Amino acid sequence: MTMEFATPYRSRSQIPPAPGTPYFIEKGMGDRAHLFGDLFTVYAGGEQTENTFNFFTCEGPKGDLIPAHSHPDTYEVFFITAGAVRLFVEDIEGRQYEKLLTTGDFGFVPKNCPHSYRIERHHSQIVGVAAGPGGTFERFFENLGTPTEELGLPQRPHVPAPEKFGTVPQRFDVAFLLDHQWRTR
């Protein structure tokens, strides 16, 4: 049996709009959005966890580096369940790190640290969890990207207009660093 709820973001969703309700979601059936060449699927967010954490997946093809960004109040986890993802992180002292993560590998990004990633193999998947005192940012994906009912990757990459990047930080704890340069390899 599938239950559907209306949320502030969607006319129908399998995610309950408030905390305190146990629920189950079949693979891929969370709230989905296309952003860049990737498919993001949210399974739990601020509404369900009283703004303590979120849980989402990112699936994508081999592609380009996503724009560098940071989360001033949010810690982020990257766990690779398929394929390979190259994670770039800069610590608060300015030291930069680059690591190729493959299936079963884990990456941690502290709050306020610039980071980016590039999917290195087709059909890669990241499980993401983010938490912090600033709340959660999972609704960023559908606000900067395009909400979708599709289960697959976008037919064409969804690249937001440059001015749209500036609308995100106040609402979703995401600060884009469009001029950031990675000095690793």
TrEMBL record:
<dbReference type="InterPro" id="IPR013096">
    <property type="entry name" value="Cupin_2"/>
</dbReference>
<dbReference type="InterPro" id="IPR014710">
    <property type="entry name" value="RmlC-like_jellyroll"/>
</dbReference>
<feature type="domain" description="Cupin type-2">
    <location>
        <begin position="61"/>
        <end position="119"/>
    </location>
</feature>
<dbReference type="InterPro" id="IPR011051">
    <property type="entry name" value="RmlC_Cupin_sf"/>
</dbReference>
<protein>
    <submittedName>
        <fullName>Quercetin 2,3-dioxygenase</fullName>
    </submittedName>
</protein>
<dbReference type="Pfam" id="PF07883">
    <property type="entry name" value="Cupin_2"/>
</dbReference>
<dbReference type="InterPro" id="IPR053146">
    <property type="entry name" value="QDO-like"/>
</dbReference>
